[in-house]
Fold this protein.
Amino acid sequence: MATMADVARSAGVSVATVSHVLNDTRPVLPRTRQAVLDAVDALGYTPNTLARSLVTSRTRSIGLAVSAISNPYFTEILQGVEAGALEHGYGLLIADPHDDPEHERKVARLLHERRVDGMIVAPSADPRGLLAQLGRHGVPTVFLDRLVDGAVTGAATGAPPRRTPPHDGAERDAGPGAGFRFDQVCAENAEPMAGLVTHLAGLGHGRIGLVAGLPGLSTTTERISGYRRGLAAAGLPYDERLVSRGDSATPGAERATAALLDLAAPPTALVTANNAMTIGALRALRDRGLSVPDDLALCCFDDFAWADLFSPRLTAISQPSREIGARAVRLLLERLEAPDRPSRTVRLPCAFVHRTSCGCPDTPSRKGTAS
């Protein structure tokens, strides 16, 4: 294992300078700072901030990096991760990468410096740097919620992405020659989204809009694919003008919904691709004085605790968020016990929660039930 002295020799500086760069305790010339950081990367040097005298290679800690921790969906995932970790005697170190690739790499580096045994990460839309960093340092990692093309092959070198794993709702080996550190777990996306679209089409809607998520995320790509699949199953044409980018956030969804409403022939029904965008869409509809479902039917991907309290009650796809978190922990612990086994991708089924925002009448059987 490389030492601070090795880094100093490689960068052509003193050990004290290396310490100042790593600990940010004194200003260092930009050129010198970069030389030290390049040497750190080249040598794979990691400061042991927990205890330099640690004699075991395990800290029984897991690093969790998820953005928008305040989002109810990720909050429930966190609860699943925490419960699974505690069950096996592991603690959590939690960080928010803010869906920013550069900050994501910093978060992963800081968690690694704290000697976590492995990481669970909801990756950004551009995780190439993260893949290279994790692969270079050999960090056992599970990606959750968002799949990463190329995570199971060529991760350490940033090789070209390979196709998204099959959508069969099962746990699959990634195949011969697959990498051995990166496992993945997520919910099904395409089929549930297609189900929302066909449900709305069955209610007589011919112009169904979609408020889509942040480009580059597998969830966005798969839910758009499901939207198109649902249209095709219902015999409806795909019109790209009815797909508006909400960037997976409430403000973006407000703008995206307003753009759809401004069309010469606006949609009569709307599907939002996550819970934050559902809030944005509802705000945009309120600002226009429009009523759901009388003026526009609404279905959403992501159920949340107060979806049943809206008037009308929101028809939604419910993801198994806690199970996603718990399964991620199990995958990581299995990886720690068997580092050389093939990588796996796990997909978990969703539930269709039938309420009234789609325009269906309320019935006792629909109050708080999935059907």
Summary: The longest strand covers residues 182-187. The mean pLDDT is 86.
